[in-house]
């Protein structure tokens, strides 16, 4: 089941540089693990911003919550979610 | 070059049913032609709405405008566009 | 899988009274059928408005779209959807 | 009398971890006590967020204020309230 | 139990003058009846607008819905509702 | 002359508890003094929030500014003001 | 007593040209009469729009409502009002 | 050339009192100097707020920027600007 | 003197095709005349929309109003204006 | 390929003056280098603000992201991006 997830990162300006670096390193590793597992199907940067557009492929709403709330950057992001499903005009087999 | 495009359809309630049916048929044919050409890379329905989330793959901004403004439903949609690019944490080769 | 769905009804003021009455009658029958099936788990009126707050219980996003887009009032409503899941502090067994 | 209450948690990033842990523990205990009393009828997590959708069952507006303003997380939440009542199409006896 | 209700009137510009006049006359009669009954405790015009600020005194949410949805202008108004209760600093006995 | 005033309190989370307590005590004393003088005609809590809805009765705009800007919580509140006047359908003698 | 009033004109596109012309002629005459009386102290066009910024000088809120609601274009304008008073740094004697 | 300028002051709550006092004193002196020069034509307080509505009279956009960006409170204000010009219905000679 | 002007076109769906064609033809001729005169310095389409971003070069606010309000599409556009001036970091001689 | 980019600067009020001065100096040098290269085609100040309107000329979305995310002020700005293309009514050869 697919969800569009948009994440906008807002790191507090007074957070120490090494703390930020650690969070970002863990975020990257975690994001790549979820991509490897097929849970994080697409991940794009929005040009001109510190934000991304993502497509998640999860079993249900609960798994979506588990994956997103475990993001190391979760406390520092504005996140919006839209449930997706197959469009009657789509010809792409995997646009479910 | 990829763009996220979101389209929300607002058909005037007093438009004749056959006119609507004709526009929708042409919209579907056109959407499927663009998908076949690889220009309209993904097309999802947003669950619970008359709206879609799409990923377009175009040569440049001008082609994006040409493709979108030719949509039969173009005059009846609220459309928002976000330019995408590769995310440094993506491992998907084609998330460009 | 649960979703909160909020619907605000906006019937065009120049729609004939009998057309409105027919749509409302079909809406009510359909809403009650979905409730009987257990798909539409809760349905409340928001006091002071022509709007409702609902909880849907569906198999997946696709079923949510099928059920909502088939509402007779669908073309005349502003609808917003939020995916729900179990809250770690809930003690209600069925707040999934 | 039922109210839909939505709560979005915004914990200041510079609050000490033990203070946060204490507040959260008290919040959970309080939330479960209100659920046991039947005052907090439903409590769902909104998937992909640090937010909940709740249904409160209270005697009147004053009790709603008493219960919500006593939440340990009250100073750190954006809260919105909508008064609910029976929907004429509901068939659920307790959707009052 | 008190509620603040704000109503903004938007009469369609193509509605016949006699229909408008009839609706307004019935609205006025109904508003005055509710005031006489003590249900509509205050009714003020917002200066420079076709809008009002009102205080309703009702038994519960359901009665609020019954009274407001029966307003002859109900289909032509944007309405917002806020539940009120006693403020700990109020000295007015009837600011409940 | 009446004004509806809405105040939403946002106390900075890092303000010392004794400073907050002092401000709140002065706010309460001042609010009660203005009520005693008849300047602050109504004061209600909005249920489920740290906010109030108030009706002020002042000689003119300048007095409204003097009274509100002297509130001890003034620097920590979002405040909105709407000028009121008699509604042609009001039957309450003092809804001026 | 001064108020800033902003008016944005939205004339329905299907209103007959002679009806519009008549409304505009009456609007202009009325606006000039109020200016002559000193009630409408300033009237500026906002460059690039069909909107104005105005300063009204009235006895009280009720007079503001009387003057504005009598504007021939009143049903076709979005209007916002802000009560003004003397600024402690003003040196202009009549900026009351 | 006239501009409407609206300024809303947001002084950080943790700024030392003497720093604030100094900024405000310089702001007042500067505002009065610009008024004496005829550049700051009107300055009103918005009743119930820490905000003002102003009319500037400048040679061009560049001068507007020079004057506003030199305000001692400039870093602590939300500022909005609207270019003004003569309204065809104005009878005030200096409403240019 | 430069202004950024953004225009979003909203043509009513029930306007006859020949009326629209006539308005658009006159709009194009007028836009090109203003460009030839150097008043309309830049005109770009926003990709994926029926909207433009423009730079106007005018003597003052009044000329901006004259030029924009004479656009044949003026009654059917949402228009926003921002006054521009030289940026201290610009090296382009004509970015005034 | 052209993009309109709008940047609004929000420097935290508690950042040391020398840190700010250093960031601004690097920002200016970088902005001028990109202008020299022809990547930053136009740069205007929005009068009355600490904001700019810019036109970027880049190879693709990825280059836009590279250039903008490298701005020394990037963490302290609200940035919005709109993809541009040739307008059918433009007569300026380089309004691509």
Structure description:
- Chain A has 96 residues and is of the alpha+beta class.
- Chain A has one domain (2-83): 2-Layer Sandwich (Alpha-Beta Plaits).
- Chain A contains 2 helices and 4 strands; from the N terminus they run βαββαβ.
- In chain A, strands 2-3-1-4 form a 4-stranded antiparallel sheet.
- The longest helix of chain A is centred in the N-terminal third of the chain and has 20 residues, at 17-36.
- The interface between A and B is medium-sized, with 31 and 30 residues.
What's the structural blueprint in terms of helices and strands?
The structure is a homodecamer of 96-residue chains.
Chain A (H helix, E strand, L loop, with lengths): L1 E8 L7 H20 L3 E7 L4 E7 L3 H9 L7 E10 L10
Antiparallel strand pairs in A: 1-3, 1-4, 2-3
Subunit structure (chains A, B, C, D, E, F, G, H, I, J): Homodecamer.
Organism (chains A, B, C, D, E, F, G, H, I, J): Oceanisphaera sediminis
Protein name (chains A, B, C, D, E, F, G, H, I, J): Muconolactone Delta-isomerase
